[in-house]
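Re: export button greyed out
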Amino acid sequence: MSTPPQPLAASPRAAQKERSMELQKELIGAHYDALAAAGETGRKVVYTFVPGNLTELLRSFDILPVLPEINALQSGMRKLSADYIAEAEKQGHSEDVCTYVKCDIGMLKKGNIGPTGKKLPKPDLLLLSYTGCFTFMKWFELLRQEYDCPVAMLHVPYQSDGHIHAHHRDYILEQLRSEVIPQLERVTGRRYDEGRLRAMLRLSAQAEDDLVWVLESAKHVPSPIDAYFGGVYYIGPMFSAFRGTPQGVEYYRTLRSEVEARLAQDIGPITPEGSLEKERYRLVVEGPPNWTSFREFWKMFYEEGAVVVASTYTKVGGLYDRGFRHDPARPLESLAEYCMGCYTNLGLPTRTSLLEQYIREYRADGFLINSVKSCNSFSVGQLLILRQLEERTGVPGGFIESDLVDPRYFSAANIKNRIESYLQMLEQKRSAGTHA
Amino acid sequence: MRAVLAELLQHARELFDDLDLKAVCAWKQAQAGRKAIGYMPIYVPRELIHAAGMLPVGIVGGGDRLEIIRGDAYFQSYICHIPRSTIELALSRRLDVLDGMLFPSICDVIRNLSGMWTMLFPDRYVCYVDVPQNFDLRVGGAYWRRELETLREDLGKLAGQPISEESLRQSTMVYNENRRAIRDLYQARSRQPWLFPTSEVYLFLRAGNVLPPEEHTTLLRQYLAEAPLEDDRVEQDHSRVVLVGMFCEQPPLGLLKTLERAGCWVVDDDLLLGLRWLTDDVQCTGDPLQNLVAAYLSHSTATASRYLPDGNRGRWLVESVRRNSAEGVIFCAPSFCDPALLEQPMLVAALDRAGVPHTQFKYSEDTGQFAVIREQAGTFSDSIRLWSEA
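Workaround output, generated via the alternate export path:
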């Protein structure tokens, strides 16, 4: 769920600056400018979370969303998170808990300066979309202590068996109708406009089609994209503030045409050092990336010719590749189903099956788990997932540990060593298979 | 100690030490066809299990008496201890006596553990109990009713016959009695903590994890009657404290004894909170399932894993301090416990606003060294007694 501050082309050795990168940069810049000016323009601001976010609903009220996870990861990439986390720990937050939370609290305590260097506005509403992560609830309870603003709670039931049950959908619908929409109406002084919402959902679905096409282009050998390190850029507009906008549609249309061109020419993924020339390993990755050493982490892969062809992190904001689309014909129902279907809201058996499908569909040589200390929602059960996937697919798994935004938990030498050893093992296995 | 109390205590201690769930095995063997359903902390509607003629069994990990051999292989070092010891119990076949497991929504660890259980034990009944965080009867209530209907149907199938309204009503009465006995015990301890040391109260409370509720209520009543008769239990110059943070992974018994030896009378706590989650009786007339729904929405205790719509996170703790005439609060949470540790800064702020002294430390269920905790708790107790304004 990323919109990193410096698009890929900012690297001095970047081979090309694609139009989609510029578009994304413009989108992000304009959004943060609008946030910085909210006090003057009178636009209302809602803080909410990435998984299961209600971007179209918020935008139908002309509300500007702020996503604290994005702020935290941006702080991580800008090397500010260590200070923010230290500030939060100084104020009594435990070293054991989620570093996204502490980074956000620390940022708030140090002036709430956003990624573009401008102060973020205070929220007019905290929309607690409690989807797939227990910590979200505590996070906004903590923010509630800091801001004098109302809170709307949207409890999204967990899909332990991987199925959406009618009464789960009804529960979310009732909360939308009785809690969330009335709060949005109160905050903005506007009435809920379902026609406007439908129009936005129509745009969302168009962009979603193109995102899926881009992600699935990785089935081609060689893959024209990296679906993890590159993927976090691709999902940025979709998972954050730009679903339901013409700009979002344009971004994904542009991105798709670029990837189509790469595919036609059999060109590998763009990396910070230009296009990858030779794809040596096709990997599936489970778990979020590390943000404090994102480039360094990525380099450990592309230097070895390892391309991530599918990842679960790029599904935290929805499993569009499994068929979900926002549906203008069923606006609120479709939002409810979206909330429930995000990756971390799915039970472990479903997550394991999804990974198994990815390994087969994307013809992966291996799968790797990046287990992050901060995120129990992702991490608990990953060692069992590893075992089960090896048993089911015969494809070797690798396991590394880091954190989201706490640089104390990114040990570059150890991680590089593990990745290299793992890739060597894949190579040996491949050679043994060739010679058998 | 008189023989009567010693015998009661020994019984509770044996149940506490019994990692093989022999008491549950014995209960099942006493009558053909009996079944037992395990549940993790904090709250599950035990009335439904009981009404199906099955035994609800509280599972709270292996404490400090279980060597972890295989459990560590399933969890990273930064995950709390209770899931690894619970998996260890299961892989060592100590939980084979259970015919199903319920995993309430308390945090992401217990939530994901439910999925691990499904994958590791595909032949067992597993249910993730996703309690509502919306407390409007028409919204969260409607959802919770449907969840309970599903659970009721599942448990009825497991038991071999549907759960009748009458049996659910009877079970509600049984659990009302049980919760009353626990409330009485907590009130008695709060009045005269020297008569009801927490290291004992905990053992008697803990017996409720494995005993049928009727037997547990009897045991609690016996303890309530017998403990005050001990001649050597006299008031001491201890500090009265509230313990917070122990609602899921349980502390080793030695830790509770250490606090007492350090000069702290525990007058309230959140140990084994699920046994007394509902703070008032559940109505016993009318639709029994709807009564359980209404009770959950309106009589749930405040704790870290439950959303509080009014946002006043610390009020319940300050109220507990006042109600129990406590002089301080000890935050005692398991390492890596997200709910407890994320909640703590908000509770600390509330205590600071109310002028209530507090201290904090962490534990693991297998913590074996208490010297530092004793020193810290002792210093805290001394500071309250020597320097408090009272």
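The first helix of chain A runs from residue 19 to 36. The button fix ships in the next patch.
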